[in-house]
Amino acid sequence: MGRSSLPEQQEDDFLSRGGGHRVDPCDHLLDLLGRAEGQDTQSVLDSLGAPDLLDLGGLREKFENCRSAGSSSGIAKGDFNGDGFADLAIGVPGKNIPATELDTGAVIVIYGSATGLTAAGDTNIPASQFWAQNSADVPGASEEGDRFGSALAAGDFNGDGKSDLAVGAPGLQRSNGFPATLTVQHNAGGVWVLYGQPNNGLTLANNQLLAQEDSSDSIGTSGSSNAGDLFGASLAAGNFNGDSSGGRPISDLAIGVPKESDFGFLRSISHAGRVIVLYGVSGTGLAKRSGQSWSQDSDGIVSEPLAGEKFGFSLAAGDFNGDKKDDLAVGVPGQSLTETVIIASGTPNVTVSTRNAGAVHIIPGSSSGLTANGSQFWNQDLVFGSGHGESDDAFGRALAAGDFNADGKADLAIGVPREDVGSVDNAGEVNVIYGSSAGLSTTVRTPQIFRDSTPEAGAEFGRSLTAWNFGRNETHILPPDNFSVTVKTADLAIGVPFKDVNGQKDAGAVTVFYGSSDSNGLTTSSRQIWTEDSPNVPGSAEPGDNFGVALY
Hints:
5% of the residues lie in helices and 30% in strands. It is mostly beta strands and 552 residues long.
């Protein structure tokens, strides 16, 4: 069984540094067309002058509802100024602003251009931007431990065709809102939303500061800001209800509250966790007080909310069933493998075994938003059969969604960083479940297990994940005209931040596996292992570098 290699305080520090993000297979459409990423699909198609091109092989139907990307890591990309080039937002949660206030945090935005990212700016290209809570007119004030920029997600929340940016600050101090107990709630958390504009990029116009009490659902079950909730520790943007404006999909935002403990009047379950979902509205942006609140206490969601489970620790959005509405994957790394519930005098009594094995919930999208109908619950025993899940494996600590076999349905990579490999403790592994018309499935395509080529105790292979197209694409010839099409899949990068490199303890590494349409998924052939000692990689491996602790 796996054992934690970090003390609790360090574990909390890492909590808000990512743990998974949404990767949309549609991100690769623009590469297929030879255009820059970051432009909405319809404008690309209209500019081609050959709208029937994608009808070959049914590609138009496959890509017609593509939307901008989102993430829940400390890095995000989007087209914030609408010029057709992807821009890059980088979280710096450990930034000290002012110097006497530790870990207040900041976000740096660098804009794309025809020649790549440029910090200086140019005509119609904004200069790089620096955002912090003490920036002029930004709501709130920088305070020690806020960790502004710990999580980022880019999406078009108001349907104007420009990406907007959500910024998590899980250490934000808040009042709990009750006059009788109006005290400061440390590490309650908050989320800022900055909206994109043509030419100017991100601005403060119509910006939003979200806290948990601002986002109550229709029956008020999202709770209030309480100490230690870490609202905004993870984020994921996706179009959960499939709506659009002028042919442009409107993004919605899922917000992780992994240490939420408030579950109603006189009911506290320490660090059980919750996820808040706010929906985008055309011309307006994210709507407060009309969202959804999800936990393991929600109707239709398997399992009971128990102490320390951290529902919402990681998030990923992807269309796992191909219905053109994003579904939400929710990591619960503290979930026990089995729970036996006995109702006595109306009170549930839960007995658990194999603690901290971990689990993942899938909440499907629908025309009315996320729904428990058809929801899925996965742990290692359900994926691979009885006996695979063990105590402290932390299955679900990291998530990444991507179309690894190019079938038009997203697949899900799940980090299990504390999995023991043979007698090697906490070596870690990654499990991959493939999408189907019924959602994630173990029968349509056999799930996969990926491990380090040389497992190492405490290395935590799979502590961070990201899925993008890194190249090595395949060419398909479409009849009857023998038209050549480059098929791009998502590839998977896996962080191994505590791996020793050339004698340097915990220097860290990243392993990349490539997707394939021909092989129906990720392959182990030609895997790559990257470290700071790799040829042409800047720097050198040093003790404690933790290269790969965060990926995008």
